[in-house]
Amino acid sequence: GFTGPKCSLCEDRYFGSNCTSCRCGLGSIDNGKCDSTGKCNCGPNFSDAKCTQCLPTFLFTGTTCSSCGCGIGSVNQTCDDTGNCNCKDGFSLPKCDNCLSSYFGDTCKACQDCGRGKCNDGLLGDGKCICEEGWTIRPTSNGKCDSCIAGRYGSNCSETCPDCGRGLCSQGIN
């Protein structure tokens, strides 16, 4: 790593009295050059002197540190080497910016059991049950799809009540 007419200077990318290699990482913006203490000239958001580690809320993307971009469900806005943020319960990877399936609202609360229905989930969901075709929610079922709609019967609420003339169909689950 020595250069100059009397080999008394260090070549580019070397420093100190022994001309030690700078060993700058890919985040170096001066072609691997360093100062007299071995500190490399790094791009923004690097946390170390060698341009190899990003600050906690940034992700190394080849030669730069880019924001992790974690969403509202992130525990601390940090991400791992693959860009996955550290999510609170109920939030989904990679960015913690949406709810897992069967979680709803801006805090991603767990949905109730919907029986023969599906929870209106997601950040904009309200957690209410959306019943499968032929099913409905009884007033006493705490929002669960567990009864046939009017005019239907059978174990899957798929049978249509026949015209009984003056009588009523015994609707519901048999």
Describe this structure in words.
A hairpin with a 4-residue loop joins strand 9 (103-104) and strand 10 (109-110). The protein starts with a strand and ends in a 14-residue tail after the last strand. The protein is built from no helices and 16 strands. A two-stranded antiparallel sheet has the order 1-2. A two-stranded antiparallel ribbon has the order 3-4. Strands 5-6 form a two-stranded antiparallel ribbon. The chain is mostly beta strands.
Keywords:
mainly beta, single chain
Topology diagram in text:
Blueprint: E1 2-3, E2 9-10, E3 14-15, E4 20-21, E5 58-60, E6 65-67, E7 74-79, E8 85-87, E9 103-104, E10 109-110, E11 117-119, E12 129-131, E13 135-137, E14 145-148, E15 152-153, E16 159-160
Antiparallel strand pairs: 1-2, 3-4, 5-6, 7-8, 9-10, 11-12, 13-14, 15-16
Category by helix and strand content: mainly beta
Q: Which ranges are low-confidence, i.e. pLDDT below 50, for 5 or more consecutive residues? A: none
Residue-averaged pLDDT: 90
What's the total number of strands? 16
Based on CA atoms alone, the radius of gyration comes out at: 32 Å
Q: Give the termini distance in whole angstroms.
A: 88 Å
Most strands sheet: 2 strands, antiparallel
Note the run of SSEs as H and E. EEEEEEEEEEEEEEEE
Gross geometry: rod-shaped
Residues in helices, as a percent range: under 10%
Percentage of residues in DSSP E strands? 25-35%
Report strand order across the widest sheet: 1-2
- Number of H- or I-type helical stretches: 0
